[in-house]
User: Fold this.
Amino acid sequence: DTAVSQTPKYLVTQMGNDKSIKCEQNLGHDTMYWYKQDSKKFLKIMFSYNNKELIINETVPNRFSPKSPDKAHLNLHINSLELGDSAVYFCASSQEGGRPGAFFGQGTRLTVV
Amino acid sequence: GENVEQHPSTLSVQEGDSAVIKCTYSDSASNYFPWYKQELGKGPQLIIDIRSNVGEKKDQRIAVTLNKTAKHFSLHITETQPEDSAVYFCAAHKASGGSYIPTFGRGTSLIVHP
Assistant:
């Protein structure tokens, strides 16, 4: 059983489109994250959700919006995609009351053409 | 905000040698320091972590040390093996309200030659 799963693994789309990436965790964790990893492997946190409340929101464009239908899911919606959005996006989860280190999904490679 | 510096960016060693990766952080409020290993095409995997009230932690061939005064922490891998080849990330977390805000280093590409 995959602990943190995200779909799709690869996403190729045209500029201007709207797309979503889904994430689910079966670890019972109370916090989920979205990270962006650029071509130089730099990992930057984008969002964090704890008990359905947004608690971290880095300076990302408002074209990006996280949606959490329940504690086990945190989806990422991206509107009006731009070339610079091309990157690998990782979902992660952690248990903040215990060990805050995150469990990561396998990543979604987004390519905007 | 927090700033985490990680060195070196690339580290090449022979199998059996030791490898050391160092990180420094800027915010003295940071109190949790995990290390991640990322293999090609995969997500980062938590391999070891340390809290600010502990100076050293070991798990088989890997160990982490923390110097709170100097604000630096290091990852030590002994008896390196080719399967240790990967990108390693350090991170520093500080508590904000009820949660931790993570900041990552830029990563170290470790290459272990057979």
In short: Chain B touches chain A through 25 residues (CB under 8 Å).
